Amino acid sequence: KAQWVKPWTITTKDSDFSSELKNILDEQFHPERPNAVWCSDITYIWTIDGFVYLTSIMDLYSRKNIAWTLSKTLEVSCVIETIKKAKARRNIDKPLILHSDRGSQYVSKEYKRVTATMQCSYSKKAYPWDNACIESFHSLIKREWLNRFKIRDYDHAYRLIFEYLEAFYNTKRIHSHCDYMSPNDYEELYRRLQQDELQLAG
What we know:
With 202 residues, this protein is of the alpha/beta class. It is built from six helices and five strands; from the N terminus they run αβββαβαβααα. It has a five-stranded mixed β-sheet.
């Protein structure tokens, strides 16, 4: 039986510690509002100059990529920077779950500090389906876009990712999950419906 393995395998913490990492999300991939559930993951991208690593955070409500960082290493600082970007861009005054796998970056002290106001949720050991939505997104950006190019180096990869995410994926690419709207349009519809409800209530 084939086993799913990430191209870069990071050892997880010992079993006693791992038992504390709860799977709060439990494959509930359809939250009722934006900023209820975010998920994060890291994927590798091949370049002629060597691998680079894309850290992404997705809002599960709209499947929007709300923050991303491209780095040349797998240091925890890349994840922390991405979370800070997401927090700066989004309104998180309501309870928020942040789901990830058990990679060392996501169980570090720095990660716990920057996510102190969130509920951290973790995939079960060796079970990638718990984080399927963002795994699927990372497959998508490679299949639809990055695999078309012979990527030279970090700068070339950055430009390609920026172009896909900012000029296409969030703004134009339709999703069946979003009733065949783009993530931005789907969130805008949610905002308009909330405003209408407030006006009716008033």
